[in-house]
Design goal:
By secondary structure, this protein is an alpha+beta fold. It contains ten helices and 17 strands. Strand 10 and strand 11 form a beta hairpin. Helix 1 runs parallel beside helix 9.
Length: about 350
C-alpha cells in the first residue's frame, strides 16, 4: 500500500457490466491494493456484481437511479464515484451538483469537455476549430448530404458508439445511404467520416491531465482474433471495443494526443482512438472518460485512475510512471452464479 494513504479509500463504480469499463475499472483499482471498491448496476446479472475483487455489490432501480446511487454511496461511505458505462457517465454528469451536495465526488472530466466529446458531430468541429488535423466528417440529415462525400467512408451514430455500436464501412454512396437510414430509423443522428487507412497502425491513447500535469500511454492495436474487430476485409478494418496489442513509447502518437487534450483543456481522463497516416495521428473517436483498456494500462504501470483519485484527494502530483513495454492481450472469462445468489435491487 502507498505511504500516501494509510487506510484504504472506498470508491463506487456505477455500471458493472462484464468485459467493459466497469469491470476493468474494478480490476485496475484492485491491482493497486489501495481501495475498497463497491460496485453497482441496474441488472442483477451484471458480471461485475459477482467479481471477488468487489467489497460490496448493489442492484439499483433504473427508475430512481440517482436516488439509489446517492443512498448506496452514503450507506457504503464511498466518497468517490466512477462511471463504469456510457449511460452512467451521462446520468452522473447531469447530476454532478446533486451528488456533490451529498458529499460525493464524481470522477469526471470538465462539463465542457464531456459536452464537446459526447456528440461526434460537435467533437470534430471543435477539434478543427482548434487547429487539430481530423478526418473529413459530415453530419447527415438527408440523403443529399452524401452526394459529394468521398468514398470509402464510415457511417456511424453521432452518439453512443462505444464498442463500435452501429458503425459501418461503406464503399459506395448507395451503401452509405443504407447505413445512414438504419441509424435514422433508430432515432439517432448519423455522421459520415472519411475512412482512414490502417496500414500505419491504429492506436488507443489514454491522456490524463489535471492542472499542469499531463501524462499519456499509447497502445498499437493488434487484431489477432474476432474479439478485437467488428469487420476485417481486404478493404476495411473496424475495431471493436476490446483493445489489445503493443504498449510502447510511441512519442509521436502520445505528443499529438496530448496536444488534443491541451487544446480541449481536458481536466481528467480522455481516451483517443485514431490512426497514423502519412506521418500524422488522426483521431476518429474521442471519449471523455477512462477506457476499458485501463486495466491493461495499469498492468503496464500507468495507473491512471489511481493517479487521478490521488489528485482529487489533494495529494501531490505524481512522477511520470515508468511503463513496462510489451504486448497486452485479452480474452473473455466465465462465471457461475447460483439462482439463489442472484442479487436484488436496493
Amino acid at each position: 500500500m502507498s505511504a500516501k494513504t494509510k487506510t484504504k479509500r472506498r470508491v463506487l463504480v456505477a455500471g458493472a457490466g462484464g468485459a467493459s469499463l466497469g469491470t476493468e475499472t474494478l480490476k485496475a483499482l484492485s491491482l493497486t491494493g489501495r481501495y475498497e471498491v463497491v460496485v453497482a448496476d441496474v441488472s442483477p446479472m451484471a458480471y461485475g456484481l459477482y467479481k471477488p475483487e468487489a467489497t460490496a455489490a448493489h442492484v439499483l432501480r433504473e427508475q430512481s437511479y440517482i436516488d439509489d446511487l446517492i443512498e448506496c454511496c452514503q450507506r457504503e461511505s464511498t466518497q468517490f464515484l466512477l462511471p463504469g458505462a456510457e449511460a452512467t457517465l451521462k446520468l452522473i454528469n447531469g447530476s454532478r451538483k446533486r451528488l456533490q451536495d451529498a458529499g460525493i465526488t464524481p470522477v469526471l472530466n470538465r462539463q465542457e469537455v464531456i459536452t464537446a466529446c459526447s456528440d461526434k458531430s460537435l467533437t470534430f468541429d471543435v477539434l478543427k476549430q482548434l487547429g487539430i488535423p481530423v478526418p473529413k466528417t459530415r453530419v447527415l440529415t438527408r440523403p443529399e448530404d452524401l452526394a459529394d462525400f468521398p468514398m470509402p467512408c464510415i457511417i456511424k451514430p453521432a452518439t453512443e458508439t462505444g464498442g463500435s455500436t452501429m458503425v459501418s464501412a461503406a464503399s459506395t454512396h448507395k451503401d452509405a445511404l443504407m447505413y445512414a437510414q438504419w441509424i435514422w430509423t433508430g432515432g439517432l443522428k448519423a455522421i459520415a467520416q472519411e475512412y482512414l487507412p490502417h496500414a500505419g497502425g491504429e492506436f488507443t491513447v489514454g491522456v490524463l491531465r489535471f492542472g499542469s500535469w499531463i501524462g499519456s500511454i499509447a497502445m498499437k492495436r493488434e487484431f489477432p482474433c474476432k474479439l478485437s474487430y467488428l469487420l476485417k476485409t481486404q478493404q476495411f478494418l473496424i475495431s471493436s471495443g476490446y483493445s489489445q496489442g503493443l504498449i510502447d513509447a510511441f512519442p509521436e502518437i502520445c505528443a499529438q494526443a496530448e496536444r488534443i487534450a491541451v487544446a480541449l483543456d481536458s481536466q481528467g481522463p480522455l481516451n483517443i482512438q485514431g490512426r497514423f497516416v502519412d506521418g500524422m495521428f488522426y483521431p476518429f473517436e474521442i471519449n471523455p472518460r477512462f477506457s476499458a483498456t485501463t486495466y491493461l494500462r495499469a498492468m503496464s504501470g500507468f495507473t491512471e485512475i489511481e493517479m487521478y483519485l490521488d489528485h482529487l484527494a489533494g495529494e501531490p502530483a505524481p512522477p511520470h510512471p515508468q511503463i513496462k513495454t510489451g504486448y497486452y492481450l485479452r480474452s473473455l472469462a466465465e462465471m457461475y452464479v447460483p439462482k439463489e445468489a442472484l442479487k436484488s435491487p436496493l
